[in-house]
Structure formats: C-alpha cells, structure tokens
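Objective 1.3, modelling of assemblies. Example input:
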Amino acid sequence: MATMSNEVPERQLTPRGLRTRAQLVGAARTIFERDGFVASRITDIADEAAVSHGTFYTYFESKEQIFREVLESIREVMLDGGQPAEEATVEAVPDGRLSPRESIARANRRYLEAYRDNCQLMIIWEQAATLNEEFRGLLADSRHSFTGRSERFIRRLQVTGAAQADIDPHYAAHALTAMMSRFAYVWFLGGERFEFETAVDQLTRLWCNAVGLADDA
Amino acid sequence: MATMSNEVPERQLTPRGLRTRAQLVGAARTIFERDGFVASRITDIADEAAVSHGTFYTYFESKEQIFREVLESIREVMLDGGQPAEEATVEAVPDGRLSPRESIARANRRYLEAYRDNCQLMIIWEQAATLNEEFRGLLADSRHSFTGRSERFIRRLQVTGAAQADIDPHYAAHALTAMMSRFAYVWFLGGERFEFETAVDQLTRLWCNAVGLADDA
Amino acid sequence: MATMSNEVPERQLTPRGLRTRAQLVGAARTIFERDGFVASRITDIADEAAVSHGTFYTYFESKEQIFREVLESIREVMLDGGQPAEEATVEAVPDGRLSPRESIARANRRYLEAYRDNCQLMIIWEQAATLNEEFRGLLADSRHSFTGRSERFIRRLQVTGAAQADIDPHYAAHALTAMMSRFAYVWFLGGERFEFETAVDQLTRLWCNAVGLADDA
Amino acid sequence: MATMSNEVPERQLTPRGLRTRAQLVGAARTIFERDGFVASRITDIADEAAVSHGTFYTYFESKEQIFREVLESIREVMLDGGQPAEEATVEAVPDGRLSPRESIARANRRYLEAYRDNCQLMIIWEQAATLNEEFRGLLADSRHSFTGRSERFIRRLQVTGAAQADIDPHYAAHALTAMMSRFAYVWFLGGERFEFETAVDQLTRLWCNAVGLADDA
DNA sequence: CATGAATGAGTATTCATTCAT
DNA sequence: GATGAATGAATACTCATTCAT
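Predicted structure (tokens):
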C-alpha cells in the first residue's frame, strides 16, 4: 500500500502557520483544477494563496508533496459518495432497509454525483497516475477502497444465492468498479453526453445483471 | 470528430526526406514509451533517430504534432484487436460460425492481448488525454470505434430477443467498453494482478450477463 | 593591523543574553568546522545553538561577524602552541634551561600538535583568507605573532654568533614560519602522510641549518 | 592521483564551437581572478565571453567543470616557472653549467616570478582547495610535481656528499617547497612587503643551508 | 528577549526554437 | 536537406533578513 508520507515532518505550527499552510493547500487545489498538475506552477499556487513565493517552501518541498495532500482530500470526498455500502445486505430488506438492487442504485447514484461535482479534480488525479509510479500507487489504494467493498458485497449475495456462484467476486468487483469509474470519466471529462437518471438506471441494471442478481420483483 | 490535421502539409518529400521523417516517428514512439509524453524531450527524439537536433523542425512543428502521428499508429493497433466484430451475429451460429457469446469472448480476448502487448503506448495515450482537449477528442474518436460496434451488436441481439429489451444499447455499449478498457488499464498499468484466462472468462460472463444474453446452452 | 571591530557593540547583556550569545558562537564553530565558512548557513548555526532563527540577529549582524569571533578563539589556541618562545635564548643553556635547538624543537612540536588538533578550524581560517581582504588582514595579524617572535629569536642568535650573520632575520622568520605552517597544512589537510617524530626532527634540522645554527655538540 | 576528467566528453566540435568554448574558458579565468571562485556567477562568465547565458551549458555542466579547466592552465604556467630543474646536478659545474646553488637560485627566482605574475589565479586555486576534496586532490597533484623534483635533486646532492646525509629528502623536499609557496603567498597575496632580489637571495641561502649544501666557494 | 512566519532578491538550470553555414 | 551552435524565456529553489507577536 502506497504511503502518504510528508517528507517535511509537520513540526508544531503556530495557528498562523496552520492557516497559511491550509491556504496553500486550498490554492493548490484551485490551481491544479485550472491548469492540471503538469502545467501548474508553484508561483501560481503561492499567488493564489496570497503569500510570497518563498513561503511555499516553508511548508512544502515540492509540487509533488502538496499534490499528495490535495489528492488525499479528493480521496475522502470520493469515498463518501461511494460504492455499495457495507451494511447493505439482502436480508436487510425485511427490516425496511434497502434491497441489494436499491443499495447498488444508491451507491451508483452517489458515485456519479461525486464524480460530476469533482470532475476537475478527477482528471488531475488521472493525470498524476500517468506521471509516476508513486501516484499510480496512491490511485490503486483509493481503488481498493471501492473494489474491497464491492467484493464483500458480491460475496454476501452469493452466500444467500442472490448472485451467481460462477462469478468471481474479486474479478467482478474490479470489473464493475472499472465500468463505473471509466463511464463517469468519458461522460464528465471525455465529452460523451448522457442523461443522469438514465445513466443511474442503466448502470444499475448492468451491474445487477452482471452478477446475476435477480429482479426485486 | 476530432481532426488529425498536420499543420505542415506533407509536401513532396524526397526519398531521403521520407526516410528521415519515418525515423523520427519511430524514435518518438520509443521515447514516448520510455519517458511518457510529458517528460520526453525533442532532443532525445532527435538523438534516438540519429539526426541532428534542428532536423526535427524540418518535419514537425512541435512535440504535439509528432505525438499525433504516433497516436494514430497506436489506434490502428488497438482497433485490430478489438471488440465484437460487426459480422458476429446470433444467427451466424447455424452457419457454423461463432455464437454471440463466443464472439464476445473472442473480442474480449483480443482486446486484452492487444492492451497487454501495447500497454506502454496505452499509458501515454491516457496521459495525453489528461493534457488537453484536443487529445481527449482523439481518444473519444478511438473509443467510438469500439462503442459503435458494440452498440450495433447489442441492438442486433435485442432484435432476435437474445438480449434484454430494457437495456439501452448506447449506454450499455459505453459502459461495457468502459469496463473492458479500465479493467485492462488497472491490470496492465495499475499494478493489479489477474490471471489471463480467468479474466477473459469472467469479463465475458459479466458482459453477457449485463446485456441479458442467455447461456449458449 | 586589521581590527576586530564588532559593529554591534557589546551592550550590557543580561545573563540569559550572554548565555545565548555564547551558545551561538559555540554552535558557529561546530558548523564552520563541519561545513566550512562558505557552505555554512545561519539557519544551521541557529539550529545547532537550539535557538530560533531570528535570535541570531539579536547578537550578530552577519555570518562574517560571528566568524570573526570564532577566528579569534582559534588564534588564541594556535598562539599557545606556538613558535620559539621569547625567553628561549642561547645563553639560557648554562642556566640549565633549553638550548636554542631544543627551544626550536619544542616550539615546532607544539605548533604541529596544535595544528593537528585544530586542523578543521585551520582550514576554515585559510578559506576565510581567500574570501576577502579583511580576513586576510586578520590572518596576517596572527602570522606576525609568530614571525615577530622568530625574528627576535634569530636576531639574538646572531648577536652571540650562534647564527649566520648574512641571514636576514625578517626574511628568515617569514620563510621559516611559512615552511612550518604550509608543511602542517599539506600534512593535516592536504592528504600527505608523515610520521610525527620524524617530522619534528626533520623540520627542526632544516630550521636550524637554515639560519646556520651550529650543532649543540 | 586526482583526475582531470570532463564529465561532458568532448564531442567533435566545429571550429566555431571550439572558438566559443575557448572564449568561455578565457572569460572564466578573468571572472575567477576578479571575483574568486565562490563569488563568481555563471552569468558573468557568459557575459564576459559575450555569449548568451544558455550557451555556457552547451559546453560545461557546472562552474566546477570549467574551473577545472582553468586550473589546468594555471598548473602548466606554474610548472614551467618551477623548482630545481631535474638536470641540475653537482657534477654539472665542470661542464660550465650551473652549480647546485645556482640551480636552486634560478628555480627559486622563476617560481617567485611565476607566482607574482599569476597571483590572482593562485589565490583562487588556494580557495578551491579549501572548498572540497576533489580540488584539494588537484592541488596535491600539482604539489607533487614540485616536491618530486626537489626530492630527487636533494638525493643526488647527498650521493656526492654535497648535502647532509641526515636530512630526509622526502621531508625536506616537502618542507622547502612549503616554504617557497607559503612565502610567495604571504608576500603577493597576504600583504607582506619584500624586496625581490633580497627574497631570492635569502630564500636560496635558507634552502641551501637547510639541506647542508656547502658554499660554492 | 525570543520566536518563527514571511519575504524576495539572486542564481542556477532546462529546453524548445531559430538560423547561419 | 542537414547541421548544431546560439538563444533566452520560463521556472525552480535557496537563504539571509525583517518584523509582528
């Protein structure tokens, strides 16, 4: 698992220092969204944060380092609007909770919403992953949060006979997570035009069909 | 549709000129695979092609321009090992040709093989798409070759009742193409470990299940 | 004679202030020995003294200024292990004190010991001398302490006929001091390998021969 | 023995390239003499050579690298005006050639002249030696050219009984070379005032006395 | 007095691009 | 056509110094 270490160990910062640091991270996010990681300049980040250009180096050693921190914040955002929730199970229905299909639908909806609302950040995340091994590792860590949840979810469906037994939960979780993330990518960043409700509906159908989940009815 | 215009129209080149130009394109591919688009330098391309630094500008105006030409060659490679062949149809079976499921399996196998064999090029292709709108457009063009074929394929399956009617062929084609391409990406470039035959089998199951294609039996 | 003025006149410092100031000078010596004058940074000196960055400027105006103070401490160290003692004279022998040759031997031994034990400081002293006129002046002052003593020593030997009359005491004192200091430099800092007792013996022979000092016997 | 390697292997340069490169080396010498190695800037070297500032990097990778080349030129200059010539031997006298004492006098005169005429370069050479191990190694190499010659010279004098047998030629050669170089240093760079002919005469006396060389008469 | 955050002048370095030969 | 020397804009990064708290 790739680590999110800060080379500059966070010394004790005064409140003022903490504020400046936070300003820089926020500014970096703005600049990265606007220019991408590659084309962004440290000068612009400092300008955006309204601090002098040398101040950047008081808190960060490089563009890579501040980028890691911005990535971390994206990860949190995306995980919240994530895939099938752990607690969603088949037997949950009688309790008045969501059916597996409803659970999947809700997770897919939230994922697409989160992607749509943060798509400028998602593209720099993708860009970063093409730049070096370390960033690819961070992306993998994030992906595992999704695939892990889906895999456990499918496994549970199989136990109750709700999903096909000849589907491999590991492969399926990766494939279906891939489907969701790439679909969102080509939609929000690749220029394809889709209708939101139809997308949620169709992706949910495909997801459920794929693992052999029978209709609620 | 994104255009592949060469600002420098290919004037009549002497045989020697054609050779030098081809050397440069080949060298660019090598360098891009090694360093990625962002980190590559024109100097290195010229060195690799064993021509002088300035010669590059006799044939190309910028790194972007030669990159387009390299991309074009990747596109050709990937399309050959592509998705469900147009001609593969359900009724083809009686003729002794492939069943829809076999056709999908074959297409998926070829796609994964092509991706595996060209993954260094795929990552620079992905990188390019994160850099600017134009390259994203080129990527979209290429994607449409795949989704178009899949969409027509699904439509035909629906006509014969072999696929579910409530699946939208356009959305499904995009989603399943997304699944394939992203799965291949995380596999060959993102560090995930999968077994080849299992991957072909599972992805084919998911693909067929998703569109509601009944078992061959 | 170069002056050792402190631009910031030592105002009345509180005991706490004196302590901090002394810490800084000690730290500076450590850092200079480790990194040399040129490569040393005020940040490192402050860190080494365990005071904040800005505190440095409470006591010193620049790296040059604190360096002068460190130099002063080296000078004291080197003078103690110095050249022929004033009181050592030829006629001292009958009193049971040292013969001129013994006196020279003892002074040379002490000088080499002092150089060996402080060679890290000597190199920064030499470095400083190459940097600007002022430091060269300080080095000259220090040198005159040695050459002055030697010159008077040689003059006294000539008075009693123990040294050649055609040797100019001023030139000889400078030349022989030069021999000692440069020999020590190439030995302890320049990478030459010598044996200590042999070095004392040979340098003393050369010194005595040079001024025409007859053998004790 | 320290090597004088150029990291950038000298490719085949066109006459124009050779000219520019030579201009840069000449300019570097001028700038180093004026500002010293530490305070010199690559920009100034380029300006002095009347080339653009990027051109510097066409030929050199760093200030250190061009400095090595300048040092090499100083070394050549100093060696020519060097220490006791190899061929000068005692028995040479009858042939009408120089006596040992004359030979030493001539070598000393030449050395002092060379030092005087190149003293600005000598100080940067000394400065360099205080900066890092590599430059100290280069200085050591150069020193050995002098001490080697002197050592062989003294050995030959001892063989004929012209010099004292209890003088160690190796130690003596180093000590007397040290005397010469440091005397020249304090004279031409350290601010001491000496008269040229007296210096040659006195240093020669001291040199000869030191090794026990009898008067010509 | 001590702190440490903020500053910005100064310098190195890269590399796409031009152009005379 | 081919060459490769020359260019300089662009940018990163360091570190001495100031100053509000």
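The two ends of chain A are 42 Å apart (CA to CA).
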